[in-house]
Fold this protein.
Amino acid sequence: MKSNQFASMTDVELADKLASLKAELFNLRFAHATNSLSNPLQLKNCKRDIARVKTIIRERELNIAKAPVAAEPAKKTAKKAIKG
């Protein structure tokens, strides 16, 4: 995935994606150890995706990058009459 696709995810989605990428990396390493991995570049790509996700999470912790705002229902505010 591209880093801008990760940047558009919320914090919860990033945490879920990181967990799934780590599980995928474990499975790829296992397949590589048993010589059943068809494309060894999958290991490299998975590691890079993990690094991208961790970088975005850290940038948000340091307030370098902002998390996308989740869709919230619009709040109606009552206008107060100004007496002058």
Observations:
- The chain is about 60% helix and 0% strand.
- Residues 11-33 form the longest helix (23 residues).
